[in-house]
Amino acid sequence: MQWVDLRSDTVTKPSPAMRRAMAEAKVGDDVYGEDPTVNHLEAKVAEVLGKEAGLLLPSGTMSNQTAILAHTERGDEIFIHRDSHAYYYEAGAAAMWAGATFNLLEGEEGYISPAILANALRPANLHHPRSRLVIMENTHNRSGGAAHTEEQMAALFAFSREQGLSVHLDGARLFNAAVALGVPVASLARYADTVSLCLSKGLGAPVGSVLAGPGDFIATARRYRKALGGGMRQAGILAAAGLVALQETPQLLVGDHQRAARMTSALSELGLRAIQPRVPTNMVLVEVGSASRWAAELRTRGVLASAVAPNRLRLVTHRDLSDQDIEEAIAAFKAAAG
Ligand code: TLP
Fold this sequence. Notes:
CATH architecture of the largest domain: 3-Layer(aba) Sandwich
Mean pLDDT: 97
Helix content: 40-55%
Radius of gyration: 20 Å
Largest sheet: 7 strands, mixed
CATH topology of the largest domain: Aspartate Aminotransferase, domain 2
Shape: globular
Bound molecules: ligand TLP
Distance between the termini: 23 Å
Number of strands: 13
Order of helices and strands: EHHEHEHHEHEHEHHEEHHHEEHEEEH
Strand content: 15-25%
Low-confidence stretches: none
CATH class of the largest domain: Alpha Beta
């Protein structure tokens, strides 16, 4: 069956140019720092994000967790939205590896406002964990790919700084946010000390995330990456695809966002409740009766969607989907609804 796969933007296959670049990549042993393609990618991502240095990791999860390890010591408190990936979808890793304490906060569309953070702060006291880090996520996955604006990020960053807290940005889909807001990625990344950018989500590379930040922080992170088993050897083969993704894909994201908007309006016309964030990107959340039943029904019609809550489906557009695929998905919803 020719699937229309809307489960995630992680499902994309490498483009022909990525395959070529992978085959031809100059490589070396990256644990010795000798892979020229990895070094090039790390420097390139750091430059694009306006940071001093970068570090290639196998996944977004390892990138976030390496950042947490490098920012904190055991027991330290991290302020994070309760619907954030680093808490919700990372298998308890922050407790497992860093021994961190998460303080789970609320906030619209996954955004922690300074007022919400202020309310969660406690004075330094023997009874309290040491407060160290705030984690932002832009775009925000469980809020349907909501993009947070520069103003929102600036406000939280400034307040966190005032409180002596560092800020890590899970920017797995930061390019989607930047494209939706019409700003360069660096103007969002500047409101965080460290940023994790995924090459294998909207950007469409097969594997890899880059953690970027100050040089001394990245040196510490490099050590934690090794400890977690993330020191890869001839990883230039993967970095080569990432470099092509950075060149090829950002300009395609507008189309992904348009196709998501097309689905939102078509599903609303069918009488389904599609949740619309203030600044939408490449995701659509749809409220349905039973998400698992709907997902199974859509599957019989060649459409794959994720059940992300008992009554909620997630549909994600990406570079491997065409306008025609989206029309087929809408037709499948129509048949399933009927
Ligand atoms: N998200 C995946 C699943 O894990 C839910 C998806 O399909 O959306 N940060 C954010 C905001 C993410 O959405 C993801 C992946 C990650 C980090 C982790 O990346 P990987 O999967 O490379 O570990």
